[in-house]
Please model this.
Amino acid sequence: MKTLYIVRHAKSSWKHDNLTDFERPLNKRGHGDAPMMGRILAERGTTIGLLRSSPANRALTTARMLAQELDFPLDSIETDEGMYGASHRQLFETVRSFPDEVAQAMIVGHNPGSQLFAEYLTDFPESNLPTCGIVCIDFECEQWENIQPGSGTLRFYEYPRRHK
Model:
């Protein structure tokens, strides 16, 4: 079995006119939400063997905060330029290329790609994946390349406002 955690980056700041979209940092709420969501995952007994993130500042910062709470080595976080602005189909191909020895993987990216990817894989019931929202999907297969559209089972969906 394979398990995928799809994470949208935490809330970011729009207050820095001199920064590009790629460089935007998390805001105060984002800095609180990401560790909180990491703790929630840790309390559920979550372990991951791979964490791949968009290299955009807000996504990579979110990934690092989640990794710290999950005791995942920060130097093992992978970045993928293609995840910045990726479509759901691009994310699908990224995940299908994961090494098969990894049973549980996490991706940290952006909307609309993350939202559409969750819908593409399973019967995700929401019309919006909020910032720092996490969708956990299980697949009854042994190889990532065998994942197909609609083949996932939604295990859970968590987001910060549910815990405030």
